[in-house]
Specification:
This protein is mainly alpha-helical. Helices cover 45% and strands 5% of the residues.
């Protein structure tokens, strides 16, 4: 497929059972990767429109982790609670039921792999196979049986908050809650280089770049170099969706949260750095994305031993 510091609470570590360890050791990630690649390729051939599941899998992995709260260690990638309400009904998770559904055959093929590991690893494969950086990844997430430990309120970042000031304060608050800096936040939003928005899911429409199946720093370059204006029409009719921006061709779009990155000087600094230096972007994205994927998990990309190996 050529798609052109974790929190470790003691309770989480000690709930990591011998059974979980054996399951982890039984998973061959190379084989899982091959199955994910085959799924994306087969689906892309059926679509025949140049789009793929890759961007959706990045969004799935992101949203599976983006509920984390560093204050109490709640939320995060452990549990795969998105399968249940309330997270399944979060407005920001609209459309991800499709992504979870298409991964079901892979879960059946690799029953020892938890849903939580599968959802996060699908994002890793999507980034790497699209030409992006190598993402440090460790197995060991454990599934929960219901959504009772989920916050009833949608903790994920909103793309539109009425004004640049409001949306900037909002995304900073969300990323800060998870333990991310401004620099890490901007790097993570660079994943918008891939995929697109769908009106039937998020209400927004269009891709961020002209190469939506390739991981690159194009998102940052376009943010700075294109002239973005409020979208007013769509296919010859008045635009009735939520506020978004479009380039001069009307084929590319940016969300209010994207435009906030160049409206705020402290954030724009990182947009400019990544627009000029793709290697720097890849390095910083790999670090931040790996950190995201391990939030709330009983393992981390740097401390890979389960508890029973520390003695």
């Amino acid at each position: 497929m050529r798609m052109a510091p974790a929190a470790m609470a003691g309770a989480s570590l000690y709930s990591y059972s011998i059974q979980d360890v054996h399951a982890k050791e039984a998973v061959d990630l190379d084989k899982v990767r091959a199955s994910i690649v085959n799924l994306v390729d087969t689906n892309a051939e059926k679509r025949g429109d140049g789009t793929s599941l890759a961007g959706t899998f990045i969004r799935l992995s992101w949203h599976a982790c983006g509920t984390y709260d560093k204050k109490d260690g709640s939320g995060g990638s452990n549990g795969a609670r998105m399968r249940f309400k309330p997270e399944a009904s979060y407005g920001n998770n609209a459309g991800l039921d499709m992504a979870r559904s298409v991964l079901e055959p892979i879960k059946k093929e690799f029953p020892d792999m938890s849903y939580a590991d599968l959802y996060t690893y699908a994002g890793v494969v999507a980034v790497e196979e699209a030409g992006g950086p190598k993402i440090p990844f460790t197995l060991g997430r454990v599934d929960e049986v219901d959504g009772s430990n989920s916050d009833p309120n949608d903790r994920l970042p909103n793309a539109h908050m009425g004004s640049f000031k409001n949306v900037t304060e909002h995304i900073r608050a969300v990323f800060s809650r998870m333990g991310f800096t401004d620099q890490e936040m901007v790097a993570l939003l660079g994943a918008h280089a891939m995929g697109r928005c769908h009106t039937q899911r998020s209400g927004f429409w269009g891709p961020w770049t002209n190469a939506e199946t390739t991981f690159s720093n194009e998102y940052f370059r376009l943010l700075l170099e294109e002239r973005w204006s409020p979208k007013t029409t769509h296919k010859g009719k008045p635009w009735t969706g939520p506020d978004q921006f479009e380039d001069s061709t009307g084929k590319l779009m940016m969300l209010q949260s994207d435009m906030a990155l160049i409206a705020d000087p402290a954030l724009k600094k990182w947009v400019e750095i990544y627009a000029k230096d793709e290697d720097r972007f890849f390095k910083d994205f790999a670090t931040a994305f790996s950190k995201l994927l391990h939030l709330g998990a009983p393992v981390s990309p740097t401390i890979t031993k389960p508890w029973y190996q520390f003695w």
